[in-house]
Design a protein that fits this description.
The protein is α+β, with helices and mostly antiparallel strands. Helix content is 57%, strand content 10%. It has 13 helices and five strands. Strand 2 and strand 3 form a beta hairpin. Helix 1 packs across helix 13 and helix 5 packs parallel to helix 8.
Length: 364
Amino acid sequence: MTTKAKSLTQIALQKFKKNFWGVFSLSFIVVIGLISIFAYLIAPDASQNANQMHVSIHSKSPGFTVDMLTIPSKIENNQSFLDKVFFGTKNTSTEIPITNYSFDQNQLTYTEYASDGLKGVTKTIAADFIMQNSAHQYIKPVTFYLGTDKYGRDLLSRLLVGARISFFIGFVAVFISLVIGVFMGSVAGYYGGKVDAFIMWIINVTWSIPTLLLIIAITLALGKGFWQVFIAVGLTMWVEVARVVRGQIISAKQMQYVTAARALGFNDFRIITKHILPNIMAPVIVICAANFAAAILIESGLSFLGIGAQPPMASWGAMIKDHYNYIILGKPYLAILPGLCIMLLVMAFMLIGNALRDALDVKQ
């Protein structure tokens, strides 16, 4: 009775499945990825960037509940469903936290919410848009499950929407670094000589510049913004990939299968892409997992410094910047929660990298 031999991919996959922390981290990353994509469907505040401000209820504790009066606007919202799902709803109505209200014919009298035991302003408006029997459509209790930030925005919604930047910067940065690093490392390792010396000079110069300083310089050159940060981070992370690929190709090009490919008359491009790269991608994959975690940390640091994602975009690093002084003001969770999110996501990618390293190690 013969048994079918397992491929190296199947063996690596089987070893990865046996690694509890690797599987758990992968599941956690998939969940965060789904949350980042469909954040506006999950977030209590589905406005763009979860930026609905209510200054009168700033810095409220988790579980805080208040009656919210919604005054509709005459401006029509012509957004499509997909636009609302992926970019949030353009909130044209006005939301006002109130403590009490009453109706008198076609007029609505309400008292605005005020903190610290103060009495809010009482106002009267025409209530043509609202009737006594349908008041619950425009006045309803709103619960802030994780409280509000210093601008009165829902903290839970900001955390959910902020996952999008931290998650996708990893993909974009790793993709850019992979494309540049694999190309430069392949050319340097395969051709050697003066080509290798020139590329290694570029790599050494790039590596000698402090990463954060280089990113700041690129960001200032490209301008502050969402995509500029992604590109800047990606352009500084290709060096490690290039060095690993170069070293692997220098070893692999001496192998017999490369010699056989040359004897068959295959061109250099085919030999590199079809024969060498598929056999050396294991360490590159591990490097990419580490770079993914590094990209998240770098983006958070840039946002903390004010040159990352710009307001009103939700970013975990920017949330820490806005609230780090609350650590000594009695509400440390405002800074700890986004910091905890960064820590968990980075740890998940590091554990995945360790699991991939063990699964792809042919010596085990």
